[in-house]
Write a structure and sequence with these properties.
Strand order of the largest sheet: 7-6-5-8-9-12-11
Order of helices and strands: EEEEHHHEHEEEHEHHEHEHE
CATH superfamily: Vaccinia Virus protein VP39
Number of domains: 1
Radius of gyration: 19 Å
Structural class: alpha/beta
Strand content: 25-35%
Largest sheet: 7 strands, mixed
Shape: globular
Number of strands: 12
CATH architecture: 3-Layer(aba) Sandwich
Length: 278
């Protein structure tokens, strides 16, 4: 049963309601945001294991269509030749390496908790919340990062503080109103929790709708230029099941859901491009 709590929404501070005591999951009725209260986050969660074992498919199959889209929009808006770009939570650096191949005039920086010794961009090892960044940037990117932070408001304040006036912010994150998430919630109501537990697991603390993400950005001085839903590559889906038949059945089911989401424009993820208002 859903019970009222005194837990404030991490986006709008309205009183949230409890959805799942087991996962410490809450939902805000005002801005439609769903979030997890991090009772204790494993400090090893974002170790090398996260990239090469736990989410092997995701990091082995970068979303080059998304990277190409970001670059096209960037160069369509920013006219100056030389620009500085920071990728927050750059991981293995796939996005930055791709941009380097497309555009040698962009000075590239990346920050992450995990090590990275790539010679193709300037790397800062650390927590973006704690690091004293050496400069401001024309563009700041966060691909599949903002859903991992426990304090979205503080995260946005940090990003806008290192973004130049009229600078661009590119984000990609979850769409909690996608068909994928809706089916997972229906299955959970039938006591089939596998998909639900994976989507709402501890590595994702924030589950954005188009509305809640827009509220977060606009309340932090950003003008939204583009917001749209999309599906990431099917081969990037992490499949836990080892049984070959069940694995193929699972992939076929995900393909069908993704196809229906593309028709209805309710993809599993969302892209936002916005400008920092001076």
């Amino acid at each position: 049963m859903v019970e009222s709590t005194n837990t404030p929404c991490t986006i709008c501070q309205n009183t949230a309601v409890s959805l799942d005591n087991r996962l410490h999951l809450f939902r805000c009725p005002r801005c439609t945001h769903t979030f997890t209260l991090p009772v204790e986050v494993d400090p090893q969660l974002y170790s090398e294991n996260y990239f090469y074992e736990r989410h092997k498919n995701w990091f082995s199959n970068p979303d080059y269509n998304l990277f190409k889209f970001f670059h096209k929009i960037l160069r369509g808006i920013i006219q100056q030749k030389k620009i500085k770009l920071l990728d927050v939570g750059c991981g293995k650096g796939d996005f930055l390496k791709y941009i380097k191949q497309l555009d040698s005039d962009i000075e590239l920086y990346g920050i992450d908790l995990a090590d990275n010794n790539s010679p193709e961009f300037h790397f800062i090892k650390g927590d973006v919340f704690k690091e004293d960044m050496p400069m401001q940037f024309d563009v700041v990117c966060g691909n599949a990062v903002i859903e991992h932070v426990d304090n979205p408001q503080l995260f946005m304040k940090k990003l806008t503080s290192i973004l130049l006036p009229n600078g661009l912010l590119f984000l990609s994150t979850i769409n909690n109103l996608s068909l994928t998430y809706k089916i997972a919630r229906i299955l959970k109501s039938l006591r089939i929790r596998a998909a639900y537990n994976q989507l709402y697991g501890a590595h994702h603390l924030q589950h954005y709708t188009n509305r809640s993400l827009r509220h977060l950005l606009e309340s932090n001085g950003c003008q939204i230029l583009i917001q749209k839903n999309y599906n990431y590559p099917l081969n990037s889906i992490d499949v836990i099941e080892d049984n070959p038949f069940i694995k193929r059945l699972y992939i076929a089911g995900v393909w069908l859901i993704f196809f229906l989401q593309s028709l209805s424009k309710t993809g599993i993820a969302q892209i936002v491009v916005c400008r920092k208002i001076p």
